[in-house]
Structure formats: C-alpha cells, structure tokens
Amino acid sequence: MRIQKIIYWVATGLLSAMVLMSAGMYVFNYEKIKLVFTNLSYPTYIIYPLAVAKVLAVVAILTKKSAWLKEWAYAGLFFDFLLALAAHLAIADGEHYGAIVALVLLTVSYYFDRKFL
C-alpha cells in the first residue's frame, strides 16, 4: 500500500508542477504563447482563462475537498492534454511529447487516486 501512495504522489507532484509551469508560461510569456496558439489555429483570447483553469484544476486535485470537483479537474486536464497532443500532431511541429508525458502522468495519478486512496 505504501508503494502505491508513493507512486500517486510522485505522479501527482510531477503533473502539478508541469501544469503550473504551463500556466505560468501562459501568463509570463504571453507573446510567445500567443504565437504558438496562432500557429495551432486556436483563438488567443482563451490563453488567460486556460491558465486560470489549469491552476484551479491543480488546487482541486491536491486539496481533495470535493470528489465531484476533483473528477471534473481530471477530466478537464485530460481533454486539455488530448487536444494539445492532437493539435501538435496536426501541424507536425514536434512539440507533442509534453502532452504525451502529461497524459501518462494524469493517467497514473487518476488510477492510483481511485484505486488506492
């Protein structure tokens, strides 16, 4: 049981760090992210709301105040990472590896959260 908790916390910690760094880039490197979103054919007005949603998702997952809210946070991040993967693969810019890593970490975190905690 102890190893499962360690796996959960390592995956969740790495996932949280990755998501928070992504949200930080959206805020502090806006011009660069705006160019990336334009290249991906995404509207640039969603950059700041997406950054806020990512931070709120991490808070919901780590605080575990509401199981319902935590499920929605996992779902939101899943679709965010899946759409990022699809968009990067569609334009073949080679930047899809981050989305793959994020999806793996999200899956491990979700599985061990549901199974053992």
Question: Could you explain the architecture of this structure?
Answer:
The structure is a single chain. This protein has 117 residues and is mostly helical. The chain has one domain. The protein is built from 5 helices and no strands. The chain has helices at 2-28, 30-39, 47-63, 67-91, 97-116. Helix 3 (47-63) crosses helix 4 and helix 4 runs antiparallel to helix 5 (97-116). The longest helix has 27 residues, at 2-28. It is globular and about 45 Å long. The model has no long low-confidence stretch (mean pLDDT 93).
For this entry, give a set of tags.
117 residues, 5 helices
Indicate the radius of gyration in whole angstroms.
15 Å
Strand percentage lies at: under 5%
- Overall shape: globular
Q: Would you list the SSEs in sequence order as H and E?
A: HHHHH
- The number of distinct helices, counting runs of at least 4 residues, comes to 5
- Look at the helices and sheets and give the structural class: mainly alpha
CA(first)-CA(last) distance: 9 Å
Compute the number of strand runs: 0
Mean pLDDT: 93
The helical percent reads over 70%
Poorly predicted regions: none
* Tally of structural domains: 1
* Biggest sheet descriptor: none
Summarize the structure.
The protein is mainly alpha-helical.
